[in-house]
TrEMBL record:
GO terms for biological process: type IV pilus assembly. The chain crosses the membrane at residues 21-44. PROSITE patterns: PROKAR_NTER_METHYL. The keyword Membrane applies. Keywords: Membrane, Transmembrane, Transmembrane helix. This is Prepilin-type cleavage/methylation domain-containing protein. It holds the Pfam family N_methyl.
Length: 310
């Protein structure tokens, strides 16, 4: 058979060959380096995102708690006014201006001291024992016309949103130190959780000095529950001198944070009484609070119905 010549080689072509072991190892190393950098960036991003989420969640919980506390504190001591009372501008408010009560009805200390203060408008315990509360609030429950000519209903609610049928609406707050929850007992006296991850709950009271007020130079000062003065010649605590309540909450987050040793925050307690609130080191805390974001929140609420006793 005739033989055919082989085709001439193409210009510039090179024989095919595979990757060397060195090239393969370099490619793997570069790939692993890229994965490591991407993983580190992802972890940093997740940590920052978790911290931001924690901070946002704590602010929302504090806002919710203060909304409930503020609503109950501002209403403390309020009573139904007698709208038929004939008053001129500048006339003093007298006990007759309030709707009459039966002898068995509880009256608040917001009224003049001649009325027995069976249920104080505001009271509390600095170190509540089991079954006691750090802050207790009360006001009258009564019905009003829902619209002109309509049925009468009560628009008042306790801290749990319940509408009791009793004459007195009470809301009592305490910190469950075991579960880390701010709990509230409404008029049914059954505590329920309001917010979680609560590290501290402290209350201070703003009182007016009676002697200074009578001299025309009233002064307001912060005191603990034990510092509220007694009724003159009575011995019992005179809660009618309380004009406002300061509430301090410390909340902590869910995400562990890699924070420097000695990182601290300003707490709610002034243990040494020097006028400065104590620092709390987050890196030395035990349990779930260690290396967690902590935020302290404070708010002062004025009692709308207090001060009548003066």
């Amino acid at each position: 058979m005739p033989s055919f010549p082989s085709p001439p080689p193409r210009f510039g072509s090179a024989p095919a060959r595979g990757m060397t072991l060195v090239e393969l190892m370099v490619g793997i190393a570069v790939g692993l380096l890229v994965i490591a950098v991407a993983t580190g960036a992802l972890m940093v991003s997740r940590g920052v995102s978790g911290t931001v989420t924690d901070a946002s969640q704590l602010q929302q919980q504090a806002s919710y708690a203060f909304r409930i506390l503020g609503q109950q504190i501002r209403q403390a001591g309020s009573m139904q006014l007698n709208l038929a009372a004939n008053k001129s501008p500048g006339d003093p408010i007298l006990i007759e201006d309030f709707v009459a009560f039966s002898p068995n009805t509880e009256i608040y200390s917001a009224l003049p001291e001649t009325v027995p203060p069976n249920t104080p408008a505001v009271s509390g315990k600095d170190a509540p024992a089991a079954g006691e509360y750090r802050l207790s609030l009360a006001f009258q429950n009564y019905e009003e016309p829902s619209f002109p000519g309509g049925a009468t209903v009560s628009f008042f609610r306790d801290c749990l949103g319940a509408q009791p049928s009793s004459t007195i609406i009470q809301s009592q707050f305490v910190l469950d130190t075991v579960l880390g929850e701010l709990r509230c007992a409404g008029s049914n006296n059954v505590p329920q959780s309001l917010i979680r991850n609560v590290a501290d709950f402290q209350v201070r009271y703003l009182i007016q000095n009676r002697a200074a007020a009578q001299s025309g130079l009233p002064t307001i000062q912060y005191v603990s529950a034990a510092g509220v003065p007694p009724i003159p010649a009575g011995g019992a605590t005179d809660w009618s001198t309380v004009f406002g309540v300061e509430v301090c909450l410390v909340l902590y987050g869910d995400e562990p944070i890699d924070m420097p040793a000695g990182s601290d925050y300003t707490g709610c307690v002034d243990a040494d009484g020097n006028g400065l609130f104590d620092k709390v080191v987050m890196t030395s805390l035990a349990g779930a609070r260690r290396n967690r974001l902590h935020m302290a929140f404070r708010s002062v609420f004025q009692l709308r119905s207090q001060g009548l006793a003066g």
